[in-house]
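Me: I'm a chemist; would you kindly supply a protein sequence with its structure tokens?

Assistant:
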Amino acid sequence: MQVYDIKTDADGRELTQHGELDFPCAFYDEKFSEFVGQEVPWHWHEEIEIVMVVEGSANVESLGTQCELHPGEALIINASALHRMTDIGTNDCRVLNVVLDPLFLAGSKHSKIYKRYFLPARNNTQFSVYKLTPNVAWQACAIDALSLAFEDLQSQNFGFEISVQSQLARFWFLFCRHEPNIFIHEQLTQKTESRIQNLINFIHQHYAKQISVADISSAAQISSSECFRLFKNCFQCSPNNYLLNFRLQQAAKNLLETQSSITQVSLAVGFNSPAYFSKKFKLQFGVRPREFRKL
């Protein structure tokens, strides 16, 4: 579904849901003349966006930077980067773009791939957009992979989801390999990484019990305030929210893989109240546990 009227909240965050829960990757084939105001207005979203110009030319602005895109060129727009695109050519600009949750490629926020190759880029305030041109060899290869992903997204032939994920992973790998400084900008110190590992290991091992921030902090022998700071810097959430999200992820897995009742599932992952569990589950996944099991 094309989105030509981009609606945002008061902070400029786009309200459109891109992709589905089980395939968090959305494809768009857009002409600027179709947009309200004939431009892509200022907005931002949690997902990474990759744009390729097919016809015409566009000017892309992000805070503190701007660049022009011409046919065959592509652009990476970082997660949470405020941006705007306008048509600057005589021909109606047409772009193909894909908007994807980093977890589409990384699998989980707990994975090494996310922590090493996505989170540092997300936290790098110097990286808002990155232009790729076919005149640079490795960028030409990345653009080729992106083009193949677009072809699969358009055709939707059997197995296209696997191919799209593979091609976009290839694209991101080339970006990581040739621009490593973007990903080491926010590398954690060995001491901090060890503390974080101890904290999340404790949560993963004890999430089914009633645990507090003080309990979590003690796993790394740090204060509760330091625990909050580490989680905020590394995961953009509090330890309580990390624990809640992990419990919900485990609950979703149990709903799909076991025949346990909703109450049994909620108790098994650390919730005392099935009603509270159902409320939080719907906020996370968009449907209640019983509906999720039927998907």
Observations:
- The CA atoms of residues 107 and 245 lie 14 Å apart.
- The first helix runs from residue 103 to 106.
